[in-house]
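Quick look at the format.
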Amino acid sequence: MGMTIIEKIIANHSGKETVKPGDIVDIEIDARVARDFGGPNVVKNLETYGLSIDDPSKTFFTFDTNPTGSDQKYAINQHIVRTFARKHGIKVYDINVGIGTHTLISQGLAWPGSTAVTTDSHANILGAIGAFGQGMGDKDIAAAFHKGKVWFKTPHTVKINLNGNLPENVTAKDIVLNLLHIFGANKLLGYAVEFYGDIVDKLTLDQRITIASMGTEMGVIILLFPPNDEIMAYCESRTGRKLEKIAADKDAVYKDTFDIDVSKFVPMVSRPGKPHDTVDIHETQKVKIDSAFIGSCTNGRIEDMRKTAEILKGRKVAPGVVLKIVPSTDEVWQQCLDEGILKIFKDAGALVSNAGCAGCAAGQVGQNGPGEITISTGNRNFPGKQGKGSVYLASPATVAASAVAGYITTEFEIPDEPVTFSYEEQQEKLAKAQQEHELNKKEEKPVVVEGKVWLIPMDDIDTDMIFHNRYLQITDIDKMGQYIFDNLKGYEDFAEKVQPGDIVVTGKNFGAGSSRQQAVDGFKALGVSAILAESFGAIYERNAINAAMPILTYDNLSDLELENGDVLRINFETGEAENITKGKKGKVNPFSEVQMEIYKNGGLF
């Protein structure tokens, strides 16, 4: 039986001739990376447990979340990492380089068929070149630094065939927004995806990166593109050596196959709050905006900059609108300088910053305020992710056109005169913003736990809702609990009311989004005894298991007739569950052997 691309990569890096979905193996990691976000916690784990570095030549730090050094706490954390790196001979790609996942590609640290892990939840962007990339929490990354390997469960693979001719006005960002419209945030949860079809071989590296970078928002392990000759030539030039092309076997087995007609794709926009809430741009057209952002790991490439310049040339940003542009890497920034693109940006009235993650990381330009409406090329618009305002997601062409028009529009429908805000509209927005501002705190491990139920009937609760990015500088676990769910509407007072031993019961895809370990450790700080969900975000699941935080999945809880406040008893080993309050019994999925081993050990270390 043949193997898919992800199965081949895992087999090649685990000493196995073959692997199949469900196999748990230790994978050798070619690039072990931590960012300025997460890096200090990685260092803390290494020093606390006295762990050595397996191979400094394969170990790296990337500073991309706050390359401006504008935040004192980030500056401290960066210095902690720099000091550790000097001591152990680890290379730091510092604040002048750009986004770490892009750096792995451009510096030849990742190549088709290779493996990489980092504290960036969008490490699966490496699927753009046919490589295995995974975002992981600080414990996983510390283990990778120390052992050179991490354990990983081989996922099922699905095949998506992109057939037909792509309309001229549909960009790579529109492709992935259309896919989000089709599959949502959890229909492909936990799968690896391979792309084939009429348009795939024609996609450039920049276009592949844009699509692959939103795999996390789709809930997949990775979106993989079989590398074509152009990608192979690029990667060989960056690594300085001849590379072997990775491809699925002809008799590879796929969990499912989807045939998608791209000729029906249209320019799309994600409405505020959920990246997968995508609609035809004409459903949001002429929504007035206050600001616009072009950049992030999704759309900060040179092709994105050139398209933006094409639209802005000879035009001005609309009065009252702020346009912020951040290239993904310093190499792209330098290209913009050499090609005269930066001058076009400045002449149009845009603010241009040095390369980095920008608004997505809450540490650089791109954030917005209460009541502010932003259109962004980022990959996430979870509440609070890019500030306290509302964020629409779109392509660079749409964002640039909207910045000129003053409202959401396409590049083909830019008005001769931009719209402006009246005094009354401004006062109304200020009042709304003010209102929003006012509304906006080792021991023996038990195999059986019992606690009061917190029933939270929601799907896709992301890590910004669980532990907001404004608290990411916190490294003391005891201080994390107070912020759990303070960005989840209706549960802002959870941390004040929850009691040690309580059990959280929720829906699908819990913990989607970022790789932040705090979204797990905060529950431990509060003494929550278990979290039950129909499914978990892939990175969150690993973080919780490695931290010995009991998480369990279920297929159906109807037999338990659970309500808020009921007392629930769960057996981690057998999956037996009982609603003590009502005398009802049911089943959940028990711990796997690996999860039980890590749990009883008190954590991965």
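Next, a different chain entirely:
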Amino acid sequence: MEIAIVLGLLVLAVILFSTEKFSVDVVTMGLLVVLMATKIITPQEAFSGFGSDFMVVLASIFIISGALQQTGVLDLIGSRLLALAKANPAYIIIYIMFAVGITSAFMNNTTVTAIFLAPVIAVARSMKLSPSKLLIPVAYASILGGTCTLIGTSTNIAVSGYLEKTGMEPLRMFEFLPVGLVLFFVGLLYMSIFGKRSLPDNKDESLEAEFGLRAYVSEIVIAKNSPLIGQGIFNSNLSKMGFRILNVIRHGHNFLPDNTTTIESEDILIVEGRLDNLMTVKETEGIDIRADGLLDYALQSDRIKLAELLVTPQSDFVNNSLKSSNFRQKYGLVVLAINRSGHTLREKLGGLILRVGDILLVQGPIEKINYYKTSRDLTVLDDFRPLLYKKRKGFLTLAIFIASIILGSCNILPLSAALVLGVLIVVLIKAVSIERAYETIDWKLLVMIGGMSAFGTAMTKSGSAAWLSQNIVNVMEPFGTLAIMAGFVILTVFLTQPMSNAAAALVVLPIAIETAKHLDVNPRTFAIAVMLSASVSLVTPFEPSCILVYGPGKYRFVDFFRAGGVLTILLMAVLMCLIPYFWPL
């Protein structure tokens, strides 16, 4: 009975993680509640993963990465990349992938992709290239770069924690560096020689043209006898008709309205709404339509600009609406349109639930837009200027990070202790505030990894992993041990396309380890095969790094299959050749 419950929950977890109907942390906690309610695992077993040192390692990496981003050091890397790419345009993909991959070896993949988006788009636009020619290589480099070290991706840390929990030796910092380097350079060479030919050439357009604003935005002039005079901007008859009042021009001054703004005579209102409503307003007494099309200066001025903001996986806006977040009042920006998976949405935006990878076209003061250059919630796509206002602290933070890695790698201190020490010093030198340090942590990911680690315990304790592994051995044993390991590699690669890498690895890992024990071979070999296979997520845009480049690159689903299909096969072949060599069966 317990086996049936656990396997049923396993199937349910795969479906829910793939469809993303619910947040990953909610799904994970729901699974734990069911496992505890059925007494398959105890509360201590359910929550033991949350107290593990690998959770501390993950949190520390997020904080130090956030400090590096906030101090401007990573922007400096982006600006150097921009200069190098301009000087050697023929090798632009190599330079970009190398810079992204090296950074990703020591930072979270998704964070690295978000950091490099703006400078790479700036590189593309300055060189008259389509960003679509460069952004898939960025995503692939961040994914493959993470295979080089223990802290390169949360998947590696989660697998190491699970191995230690089952009594095996945890992974060392650079234990799989040789294999990771081969994977990375195979990806780099393939994309720079062959893969670049399969990348689409999606032309870059102005923001107004790209989001289709010209048909929707007009100027309304308030006449002296208008019934709108004295009405609050957001409670006016115009608002009730479905218009969004984006801007007010009063006595020659352009400003964003707020809750206290009332309409005055001779105001010029920049409004966005349906064309049929605009035609109705045109016939309304006391209101005059000055222009039927969009006037560029109406949306942008010396102080007020348009910008594209990308919703990141760490954002608090994910699974929330603009209305519930009080976006306009709280952040001082107006959302004009939302681009999702290549489709622009303009109507009923307030109630739309935001997803990772959504691009918001916003209008607002320059200083408000600049704030999001160092925000974990949103990334500014269309403007890149290095923020070097904390240059000294930034390089000191980088030195502290390197020192922490050396201390942990050389076993002078446990890795968790070394990284916590680094975080304490970074906070003490005020490279990042305490409040911002907590904000940089991806709590949903931590909950998912801690919970799925406990799910692995349930699979082992209930006998589910043993039952599955026995059936796998019975079917596959005539084909040999390598064939069985290849089956786990293929299964993990398949699952990691719709699921997160860490979730896919933690689902397959207990079964793979139990199968290795049944075969009387080295379980560490199977574990590392599963872990590295989880990072071969290249043929669909569901991996967070791929989601982040999907909108800015104006990609289609098939673009990832064309660019990553052959590369995925090559990388699986590399894994099957190298893993048995470095970790003999």
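The chain has two domains: 2-203+417-582, 215-293.

See the schema section for token definitions.
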